[in-house]
Amino acid sequence: MSATRSGAASDSAGVAQDARDAQDAATGRRILLLACAVTFLAFLDATVVNVAFPDLRRAFPEVSLARLTWVVSAYTVVFAALLAAAGRLADTLGRHVLFLGSVLAFTVTSLAASLAPTSGLLILARALQGAAAAGMIPAALGLVLAHTPPARRAAALGAWGAAGGLAAAVGPSLGGLLVEVWDWRAIFLINVPLGLGVWWAAARAVPRRAPAVRRLPDPVGTAALTLGIGGLVAGLSQGRDWGWTDPAVLGLGFGGALLAALALHRSRRHPAPAVDRDLWRDPVFARANLGALLFGAAMYAWLLIGPSYLIARWNYSALEAGFGITPGAVLAMGGALAVGRRVPARLQWAAVTAGSLLFAAGAGLLWG
Questions:
Q1: Residue ranges making up the domain that contains 252
Q2: Dihedral through CA 266, CA 268, CA 273, CA 276, nearest 10?
Q3: How far apart are alpha carbons 177 and 91 in whole angstroms?
Q4: How many domains does the chain contain in total?
Q5: Other C-beta atoms within 10 Å of 12: how many?
Q6: I want to staple 55 with a disulfide (CB 3.0 to 4.6 A). Which of 184, 218, 280, 300 is the partner?
């Protein structure tokens, strides 16, 4: 009798465990879908504005080109500068809290950008939108890692990363379509229903967990890093209009460099640094990130200038310019997947070099 009861209890425990595993797997899939959705939105807003740039110039004819580029730069600078700190903030506040708060903030700032009556308010809304996007990405990645079994993490991270690549591919054509049908405000307004939908689904699907740590990232180092990068970019953006020897340009450039250096110096000994310097001691990590920085600068410059070039030089419409840029982004994403899967790690440097040379050759042909 006792053996029978023991077997029945074991079977019941097995069934209960299977039910919990199935529920955890379903939760993991929902979280991965939500993480891909916010990653798509965050990277979409880094590229979707580019094709609307000529429309923005017509909407604000009194604003200089250098100042108007901050509609793009304000988002990307703040986004990049706050990513590291946001990752530590996710561990402090809890990924669930940061995810929901960042998605809601991204939605509200997108609405503010769509309603902005002046270029200054539009740039401010874009900077706040970039800060919200910086919170979404590490929170989303942390949730995926926490709710995905180790055996499936590689596939989950591949899907999560592909969402960002898809945004780069879709951004120009989607932006062109929205500008053609409505105007530049639509590229921000479309985020509102999408963001609210993701927030509602995440509030129901993402389980709450206690924060991993209690220490906030270094506020002085974080502020110095953000202001330093912003100062450097501001100096480079305004140099042509104000003059490269203008005291304001020199102050922004040197001041930004000093602030960035201060952030790196504080990160050497601070228990919760703004920048994790240990990773940069790995030469492979350092070289890969340096290469990504250089290529990313060239790529984002092309994504900004390309649509304007096609519209002004070849008389494309906004929609045609968007579809004209999209094939390059699609091929880049496909090439990255192919190289990652088929090219041995020891030869991937050759693939990166060949791709960079082809990109430079294409830019040279267009310039000529």
A1: 219-273
A2: 130
A3: 39
A4: 2
A5: 10
A6: 184
The tokens for 134 are: 């910086």
Same domain, 31 and 75: yes
CB 319 within 8 A of CB 176: yes
pLDDT in tens, the chain (368 residues): 555 555 555 555 555 554 555 565 677 788 888 888 888 888 888 777 877 777 888 888 888 777 888 888 888 878 877 877 787 777 777 788 888 999 999 999 999 999 999 988 999 999 999 999 999 988 888 888 777 777 777 667 767 777 776 776 677 777 777 877 888 888 899 899 999 998 998 888 777 766 655 667 788 888 888 788 878 877 876 776 678 888 888 898 899 899 989 988 888 887 777 777 776 777 776 777 787 777 777 776 776 677 777 777 788 876 677 677 777 767 766 776 676 667 776 777 787 788 788 888 877 877 76
Residue (of 13, 49, 144, 138) closest to 87 by Cα position? 138
90 and 194 in a common domain: yes
Per-residue exposure over 264-294, b if at least 16 CB sit within 10 Å of its own CB, e if not: bebbeebebbbbeeeeeeeeeeeeeeeeeee
Cα 124 to the center of its chain, rounded Å: 18
Tokens representing 228 are: 């330093």
Say whether both 27 and 128 belong to one domain. Answer: yes
Q: What pTM was computed for the model? A: 0.73
